[in-house]
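Wed. Picked up where I left off yesterday with Amidohydrolase 3 domain-containing protein. The coffee machine is broken again, so keeping this brief.
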Amino acid sequence: MKRNPFIDKLKRRAFLQRSMLLGTGLLAERYFNLFANETHATAHRGPDMILYNGKISTLDECHPEVTAIALTGGWVAATGSDKEIHALARPDTKRIDLKGRRVIPGLNDSHLHLIRGGLNYNMELRWDGVRSLADALAMLKMQAERTPPPQWVRVVGGWSEFQFKERRMPTLAEINAAAPETPVFILHLYDRALLNAAALRVVGITKDTPDYPGGRIERDAHGHPTGMLIAEPNALILYATLARGPKLPMSDQLNSTRHFMRELNRLGVTSCIDAGGGYQNYPEDYEIIERLHEEGQMTVRIAYNLFTQNKGGELADFKKWANMVKPYSGDGYLRHNGAGEMLVFSAADFEDFLQPRPDMPAHMEKELNEVVRFLVENRWPFRLHATYDETIGRALDVFETINRDTPFGDVRWFFDHAETVSEKNLERIQRLSGGVAIQHRMAYQGEYFVDRYGKQAAENSPPLRKMLAMGVPAGGGTDGTRVASYNPWVSLYWLVSGRTVGGLPLYGDANRLERQEALRLWTLGSAYKSNEEGVKGALLPGRYADLAVLSHDFMTVPEEAIKTITAVMTVVGGRIVYADAEFKSHDMPLPPISPDWSPVRHFGGYQQANADFAPAFAGACIAAGCDHDHTHAHDGKLSVWLGLDGQHGRVGKPSFNHPWAIGCGCFAY
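Structure written out below (tokens, as returned):
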């Protein structure tokens, strides 16, 4: 395996920390990994909890795998053999037999929309992981029947038609048959939304409704809207429509956010960096998460970035926020992490691979310069959404200009996504001590990318192996919940196998990661993105006691089984926040999901193959009005099949030089 300079740097730092502690007498020689100081675990106190008889991946170069771990006061106190760790116990130490299970450091999603997603989670019907379109339509029918007016049924991202055995999207006729009266909004990636007739009525889209700039209302031969809204490539048309749906009351939003965090805990996630998002205004839309934090109900640690909502007023937003919050202020459960992923609207490209790559407007550099210069002057870390190398190159021109008179120095910054970043631009990122946050959007859109740009271009989109070889700081993530799913194991499967959720091979051996490399990306790599690599990402003495006990051994399970892994126990800050299977007695109960009609209450979140409701699907497809053959696939290129081949007179690259280009507050990632 080639050495990764970035990881080597983190390993050296950990080694120096241990050496310093040993030299000052804080580490007993016999228990070299025991971290014993007043802040964390004192020697006379002993551990609160011991987990033993496991296979614990520490990500510590000196002790990469141990069988036992001791936790004290929310921190890792010691790791070692069962005998060594049991010797540290006090009479009231809680001891849990891992029964040979694999344990990993808690997963850390470096790009998640948890705060916004939590407000809506209980309202959304998730098709994430559903194996057949017949099942998805049956779920839709059942949910439509129980959803009371004026609420909608919403399927908001996290799925691809290629995950279905039928290998196709639902038709509008099928959606209308499944839900003739209840409004339905189904978001497909960032390219389209499907609305049934009831939804068209409640949002007022008629024959006379004009198209949105950068978007299109599909119409029949008589000019009537069919229910298909298409981003070309501006997603404003999709999110402005979604935003018109009813919201949950505050009590249900609190409940919804807690259950979304629990769903993430079920998947082994203990931390994330929240990337903001459209309609996520600071501080108004942070009230729920702040309240949960104040009440000690956080089960996922959040470092949050602030995302401007005002096209043309971006600099004013950051100047206002600079007087309200300081970088890294907060605590280990909720802390500020700087600006982005939206810095200026003119610099944000799109990831809709069904559309041609958009060129950014000519005034992008001026606007980006003003905002980034202010951030660097005020030592604010930042992140910037950028899908294409062309956008990245122009942004780097701006950053290098600023750096000549206002050095970036230790300001942490990175690009999000970067699917087509070139080696040349990676070198420029490296010279400015920047990084990249990698998400598994290609696992959901890889087929579209190959269709437009070809298989060869896809083989290094993004160039995973090149980033690691160069030592460019990289973190793993999902970009959940509105495009890809929030399930980290789908991302880890994609990193290791190089395949989409539909099974299309994207990468050869030259751009696939080994399992421990992928795990490091999702732990230490993500921790670096929030300046927390000293306390997160590895099971070392003096680090947070954040870990996941897995349902299957990530290090040995067949590749195809990686995406089915969950946690059977998750610990955050030394507290068990989720437990199942043989550890069920340790589970932390939550209030029932509210409201009563919530799709999550009936179907759960990410769908596993053995979902409890599966028997209800018998015959449900025909009941939903879907009685045709489900084995066919589309013919020809995807762009032709989906009507995106220029038939509507929209040939060539979209222009962004118009007043509503790249959105308003409705533009959402």
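Quick read: The longest helix spans residues 5-23.
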